[in-house]
Specification:
495 residues, Alpha-Beta Plaits, seven-stranded antiparallel beta sheet, 40% helix
């Protein structure tokens, strides 16, 4: 079964997982500004010993606040370790896929991470691979969440980078006011103004497009003033690379088809390719800055929030691999783990014939991958019979017409067996409508103790009913003895 599933998985082509990173960048103020701030500090003890340590502490505090704000919506988001950070930075500038460990002796990042040469020109190369960069220039008139989610369906690897340079509220207001004035000035031409002055009659022809654009900018200014959104400069670029230049060209065209199909305008970089690629690197705030002003709602629409989750890499409770590896509708695989903490409950719901029994049998088969695993299946309709026999398991056909029967009171001679038997018998009595009182519990306990002293073959429900003195209890147990309809299944003298 595993080999057939492996072959079917590999026949589907290459599979990719999506890793999402949020890089926070902050430019500290100049030292001259910090020295001016010291003039307003009266206690010399409050003056920091070094500006960089104060800036680092401030940056760590603000990034922790950002993480706390995302904790409720994205609880799986976490800070990268030193090794993970270096591995991520290395993957952005190198064609080699490897883990990078933080050195014990601190050293500069350029000496630690750079291992691949960059060749410029109209068709740049990173090592032996051709670089292709696609930059988004224009945006559709309306947006919606997951606007670029179709990129997840592509069957090749790429880097999708969205850089957002937020503006302070005063700077954003100044920029929007400039837009309003510029568009308002275009409502009427200079000739129209002169004609109005000379004739002393108001102009009737107005550039309605400029008027609408001015109103749109004014609406954005109102939203900014109310604190509903923030504004900034956004640059979105997609990077693909491949050793074969023709394949890289085909891949960038596939990306372009998806983006243009969503109403965006974009450009495949040539002269500006190196600048555009540099703009995709973490922490780079100057290269390839695009000027269109974007609000935070539109930014959220473009964020990769709908990426398919590939599932946990291991089962933490069982200390092993995932239960199974599955194939999704896109190129992303899925690792199934049914445990949440130490709880592995699950329920499968679906219409008749949809494959629920096949899925449950597959899960049972895959559970055998864990050491010392045991599987017990209570099956209706014998849907798991084939899987059980294929693994060399034992299949029991339960039914009143079969030869299989049980002796549930066999182990009442031990303390553990006695406790289990009393709970089970009291459940049968209660199911028959008899109220379980302390007197009932004592009567059942005394009878079970006496039954434990009898030979094993006599430890049956018929024997228990004979030892119980209360007629009401004997009558409630009668359906489960040989005198009742279920005795052939539950009142045997051996298992």
């Amino acid at each position: 079964v595993d080999e057939e599933r492996r072959a079917a998985f590999e026949e589907a082509g290459r599979h990719f997982e999506t890793d999402c990173y949020l890089t926070l960048t902050w430019m500290p103020p100049a030292d001259r500004t910090a020295r001016i701030e010291q003039l307003f500090i009266e206690d010399p003890a409050d003056v920091p010993a070094a500006f960089w340590s104060e800036h680092l502490a401030y940056f760590e505090t603000e990034t922790s606040r950002a993480r706390d704000m995302m904790a409720d919506l994205m609880p799986e988001a976490r800070f990268l370790s030193d090794n993970e950070t270096l591995t991520y930075l290395h993957a952005c500038i190198s064609t080699a896929r490897q883990a990078v460990r933080a050195p014990s002796v601190p050293m500069c990042l350029d000496a630690l991470l750079v291992d691949t040469s960059l060749t410029g020109g109209l068709s740049p190369r990173l090592g032996d691979e051709t670089l292709k960069v696609l930059t988004i220039n224009g945006f559709p008139a309306t947006g919606e969440p997951g606007l670029l989610s179709d990129l997840d369906q592509l069957g090749f690897g790429y880097r999708w980078v969205t850089r957002f340079l937020p503006l302070d509220k005063p700077d954003a207001e100044k920029t929007l006011n400039t837009y309003i004035r510029n568009w308002f000035a275009k409502r009427r031409s200079l000739t129209s103004y002169l004609r109005e002055i000379l004739t002393n009659e108001p102009a009737t022809l107005v550039n309605t497009d400029a008027d609408n654009q001015a109103a749109d900018a004014d609406e954005a200014l109102q939203a900014l003033g109310a604190g509903h959104v923030a504004f900034g400069y956004s640059t979105t670029a997609i990077v693909v690379r491949h050793a074969d230049a023709s394949i890289a060209e085909d891949q960038i065209r596939a990306v372009e088809r998806v983006i243009r199909g969503r109403g965006f305008t974009c450009v495949s970089e040539s002269v500006n390719a190196i600048e555009a690629w540099l703009g995709t690197l973490p922490g780079e705030a100057y290269a390839n800055v695009r000027q269109p002003l974007l609000n935070t709602i539109n930014l959220a629409h473009m964020a990769p929030l709908s990426s398919l989750w590939a599932g946990p890499e291991h089962n933490a409770h069982l200390s092993g691999p995932p239960l199974l590896m599955a194939r999704s509708a896109s190129s992303t695989p899925f690792r199934l783990v049914t445990h949440q903490g130490d709880v592995g409950h699950m329920m499968v719901v679906g219409p008749t014939g949809a494959g629920k029994s096949v899925l449950l049998s597959l899960l049972a088969l895959q559970f055998r991958r864990y050491p010392d695993a045991q599987v017990f299946i209570f099956d209706k309709g014998a849907s798991a019979r084939c899987a059980t026999l294929a693994l060399g398991g034992i299949w029991y056909e339960l039914g009143l017409d079969g030869d299989l029967a049980f002796q549930p009171l066999r182990d009442v001679d031990s303390d553990a067996g006695l406790a289990v038997a009393q709970a089970w018998v009291l459940g049968l009595i209660e199911q028959e409508g008899v109220t379980v009182t302390p007197e009932v519990k004592q009567a059942v306990w005394t009878a079970l103790q006496s039954l434990g002293a009898a030979p094993v073959a006599q430890r049956t429900l018929t024997g228990l009913a004979a030892l119980i003195q209360m007629p009401e209890l004997r009558q409630s147990l009668e359906p489960y003895t040989l005198a009742g309809p279920y005795g052939a299944l539950l009142d045997a003298d051996e298992d």
